[in-house]
Amino acid sequence: MLRALSGLDPVDGGSIDGPRLPAIVFQEPRLLPWETLEQNVALGLPPGPQSRTAAQAALEEVGLGERLEDWPRNLSGGQAQRVALARALVQEPQLLLLDEPFAALDALTRIKMQRLVKHLIERHQPGVLLVTHDVDEAIALADRALIMRNGAIAAEYRVTEQTKPALRDTLLAQLGVDADTAAH
Fold first, then answer.
1. Chain-centre distance for alpha carbon 139
2. Which residues sit opposite 156 in a β-bridge?
3. How far apart are alpha carbons 120 and 66 in whole angstroms?
4. Helix, strand, or coil here: 138?
5. Does residue 23 form part of some domain?
6. Is residue 1 domain-resident?
7. Contact indicator for 25, 84 with CB cutoff of 8 Å
8. How many domains does the chain have?
9. 3-state DSSP call for residue 54?
10. How far apart are CA 162 and CA 47, in angstroms?
C-alpha cells in the first residue's frame, strides 16, 4: 500500500485520490553518502539560498542543525534517520508515509524517535500513514490502528487514551499472538 501511495508501484485496479507527491521515510535512511547532510535534506528542493535555509531549519528541528556540512558516514543510526525525517518534512507534505522507520534502532533511540515524530507531526500536521509490526509503537503514535491481511484491511480500531489499555491485547489477538505470552 505504501509503495502505491508513494507512486513507487503502479495501482493495479482502482485508483488513489490524494496528494500526488507524499513524502516517505523508509526503514533505512537512504542518505546519499557523497552529499552533505544539508544537501541530503535539500534533495528535491529548487536550488538556491531558500533551500539552504529550509534544510538548515529542518535539521535544527530534528536536533542536527549544527551538522549541516557533515557527512552521512559520521552519523549514528538514529541521527541518520532524523536526517531522513528532516528530508521528508522539508517538503511540507500533505501526506507523510513512514515505512517502519524505527525498526533498525535500539530501544532507547526508538523511544526518542517516536517522541520526536509525534512532536513533528503535531507541528507540521501532515496526514500520516505508519507501517509497523510493533503493536506498542502503533498504539503510542496512532489515532487509528488497522490490521491488514492479504492486502486488505481486516480490522480497524480507534486509539484513544480510554482504549489504549485494552487495545494492545486486542491487536495482539488479531495478529494471532497470546497477550500473556507476548508480555514475557
1. 14
2. 146
3. 19
4. helix
5. yes
6. no
7. yes
8. 2
9. helix
10. 48
Q: What is the pLDDT of residue 184?
A: 47
Q: What is the pLDDT of residues 98-151, one digit of tens each?
A: 999 988 888 888 898 899 999 989 998 998 999 998 899 999 999 999 998 887
Instruction: Give the pLDDT score at 36.
Output: 97
Q: C-alpha cell of 37?
A: 547532510
State pLDDT tens for residues 9-30.
777 776 666 655 688 899 899 9
- Domain boundaries, position 84: 18-131
Residue at a domain's end among 106, 131, 156: 131
3-state secondary structure 129-166: EEECCCHHHHHHHCCEEEEEECCEEEEEEECCCCCHHH
**CATH number of the domain within which 123 lies:** 3.40.50.300
**Location of C-alpha cell 494471532:** 176
Q: pLDDT by residue (tens digit) across 25-57? A: 998 999 999 999 999 999 989 988 999 999 999
- Is the same domain home to 114 and 150? no
Has residue 83 got a pLDDT over 90? yes
Looking at the fold, whether 124 and 172 belong to one and the same domain comes out as no
Tell me if 6 is assigned to some domain: no
Q: H/E/C letters for each residue in 67-97?
A: HCCCCHHHCCHHHHHHHHHHHHHCCCCCEEE
Tell me the whole-structure pTM to 2 decimals.
0.85
CB environment 62-85: b (16+ within 10 A), e (fewer)? bebeebbebbbeebeebbbbbbbb
